[in-house]
Amino acid sequence: MATTLVRPVTEPAPTAHKAPALRHFGPNWYAPVMGTAIIANAGATLPYQLPGQRVACQLVWALSALALAAVLTARAGHWIHHRDQARAHLLDPAVAPFYGCLAMALLAVGGGTLIVGKDLIGTEAAVAVDAVLYTAGTAIGLTAAVAVPYLMVVRHRIEPRQATPVWLLPLVAPMVSAALGPLLIPHLPAGQPREALLLACYAMFGISLLATLLMLPLIFGRLILGGPLPLALTPTLFLVLGPLGQSTTAVNQLADAAPQAIGAPYADALGAFAVVYGVPVMGFALLWLALAAALLVRAARDGMGFAMTWWALTFPVGTCVTGAAGLARHTGLTALSWLAAALFLALLTAWLLTATHTARSLRRR
Q1: Cis peptide bond prior to 12, omega within 30° of 0
Q2: Which residues of 94-128 are buried (b: 16+ CB within 10 A; e: fewer)?
Q3: In angstroms, rounded to a whole number, what is the distance separating the alpha carbons of residues 43 and 345?
Q4: How far apart are CA 307 and CA 285, in angstroms?
Q5: 357 CB contacts (<8 Å, ≥6 apart)?
Q6: Statement: the pTM of the whole predicted model exceeds 0.85
Q7: Is 240 within 8 Å of 168 (Cβ atoms)?
Q8: Where are the alpha helices (DSSP H) in the chain?
Q9: Rounded CA gap, 67 and 33, in Å?
Q10: Distance between CA atoms of 292 and 364, rounded to whole angstroms?
């Protein structure tokens, strides 16, 4: 008679993770950095300046710089202690696009350093900081603009109903580089270095614009055929404003820098292009803003609660502020100045509301 010895099966002990609080700290946390930095950048470039406004913008820029340092540190801890989760984020089509936010956070804080931070740390230090953040942000943004769509094609399993404006995030990052690169042009040696950066910014403008034009029909088609987005995702509709407002900002900023970087007749042509392109695109941005706002009100009535997606109400609207301010500068139209001011008030309201709810959520956790 044979006897079979059956050994008890022991379950593997659960892995003890270090820094458990960071395990689910995703790249979406760069969105608050972007949303805060745009307050300083937009407020300092408004056509109308109130007493103390620039000082307030300096304080907000300092807050965004501290937030960037904190999020970078936390994300580094996430990659060190939770690499499995970090890889899972890259393979998740709902999370991977947020890697574009890393690039935009670096770029937004770097741009703010030259716009208002120089008042606190000096121009020379501000140029050095922006050069580092701009270079890193541009490199990461261009990488994300290729890597995330690549993953969507070969690794992610996506259905048409999953299309959301979040897909635009990695594609907008090069446009942010195009809009903020002109700040560094005056600090480069005259001649080819300035011209090279100017044309590189226009190349990134084209990369982002054409990629966005490919993606927008998928997003709008999803809305028409599939109906409204889930309540928590409704604020992401405002992300469509990002490439619209940022591209308008870019052409105006580049037009300002063109005379220092490239000769006639191109400098004059680029100045005209800023208005010829910017006005129609800003018109479409206002149309989309009205549509997104109507759907947001509908979602609020249906019981939409707070989510991190609320930060989509900040940075994209801020790009429309800087875009309208640039058009006001080049056309001299008072109506565009008032539009920039009205959009900034909406941006400030959205930021205060979102930042308050975010702080409350962090205290509860």
Answers
A1: no
A2: bebbbbbbbbbbbbbbbbbbbbbbbeeeeeeebbe
A3: 10
A4: 24
A5: 306, 310
A6: yes
A7: yes
A8: 30-44, 53-81, 83-90, 99-112, 118-121, 123-154, 169-180, 192-226, 241-261, 266-301, 315-331, 334-364
A9: 6
A10: 30
Mapped onto helix, strand or coil, the DSSP state of residue 234 is helix
Provide the 8-state DSSP code for 114.
I
Residue type, 33: V
**How confident is the model over 207-233, as a mean pLDDT?**
95
Measured in whole angstroms, how far is the alpha carbon of residue 199 from the centre of its chain? 22
Q: Is the dihedral of CA 184, 253, 293, 228 positive or negative?
A: negative
Round to whole Å and give the CA distance between 268 and 58: 33
pLDDT of amino acid 5: 41
Mean pLDDT, residues 286-305: 96
In sequence order, what DSSP letters do the residues of 132-179 get, joined into one string? Answer: HHHHHHHHHHHHHHHHHHHHHHHT----GGG--GGGGHHHHHHHHHHH
Q: What percent of the chain has pLDDT over 90?
A: 84
**What would you measure as the largest C-alpha separation in the chain, in angstroms?**
101
User: What whole-number distance in Å separates Cα of residue 228 and Cα of residue 246?
Assistant: 25
pLDDT band at 363 (very low <50, low <70, confident <90, very high): confident
CB 134 within 8 A of CB 180: yes
Helix axis angle, 315-331 relative to 30-44, nearest 10°?
A: 20
User: Could you tell me if 25 and 74 are in contact, meaning their C-beta atoms sit under 8 angstroms apart?
Assistant: yes
| Gap between the terminal Cα atoms of the chain | 61
Dihedral angle of Cα 275, 279, 281, 286, to the nearest 10 degrees: 150
